[in-house]
Specification:
Helix 1 crosses helix 6. With 201 residues, the chain is mostly helical. Helix content is 83%, strand content 0%. The longest helix is centred in the last third of the chain and has 33 residues. The chain is elongated and about 65 Å long.
């Protein structure tokens, strides 16, 4: 129950950070969003706004760990794994209507939360790269594709927000899916050609 309540508070605080950035997330805005008085907020977060931000980023990372990173490690089917990832990404970012806090804080807060942010992005790229390798891509190609996918998702979020056009995000997700399909077909063709060569007398 305590964890559930804290998660609800963190969710409300996260939206304040998304809307106003780290510097603009005042205590007054926090109390209005959470429905808690200043005293109650400091009971939850004795170290103030920096603790709130660290816990919000940890909360985001936990969600991605449960909904995206671990499934990519556990799902065997390439199609199912990629479909699950894209659907989870689109759900979390509300089809481009919700900015990425990790990306926002990376630009706004310099070194304060750099370790948490770096860990999050490296983890995403690594599990994505290993998933692609298990699905038939070569190690270098899988690593490059993973980097392109993560950076493509982040770039699509920024563009959708900057243009106030969430459809931009949906189009870029479709383009990433298509790119993966084309790459998979090319990879399958290469593997098939290699097998044929090995079977030639």
């Amino acid at each position: 129950m305590v964890r559930r309540n804290r998660d609800a508070v963190l969710g409300n605080i996260a939206e304040v950070f998304r809307r106003h950035g780290y510097e603009g997330a005042s205590l007054g805005r926090m109390t209005a969003a959470t429905g808690l008085g200043k005293g109650s907020l400091y009971n939850f977060f004795p170290d103030g706004k920096e603790q709130m931000a660290r816990e919000v980023l940890a909360h985001v990372h936990r969600w991605f760990e449960e909904e995206i990173f671990r499934p990519l490690e556990e799902i065997v089917s390439p199609d199912h794994g990629l479909q699950r990832m894209f659907e989870s990404v689109e759900t979390y970012f509300q089809s481009g209507r919700r900015i990425c806090l990790m990306g926002l804080f990376a630009l706004e807060t310099e070194d304060t939360f750099s370790s948490q942010i770096r860990t999050y992005f490296i983890r995403w790229e690594e599990v994505m790269g290993l998933f692609l390798q298990r699905s038939g891509w070569g190690e270098r190609e899988a690593r490059d594709l993973a980097e392109d996918i993560v950076s493509g998702i982040q770039g699509a979020l920024v563009l959708a927000q900057a243009r106030r056009e969430p459809d931009v995000f949906a189009r870029r997700m479709d383009a990433l899916r298509l790119r993966l399909q084309v790459s998979q077909q090319a990879s399958d063709a290469r593997q098939s050609g290699t097998r044929d060569c090995l079977q030639d007398p």
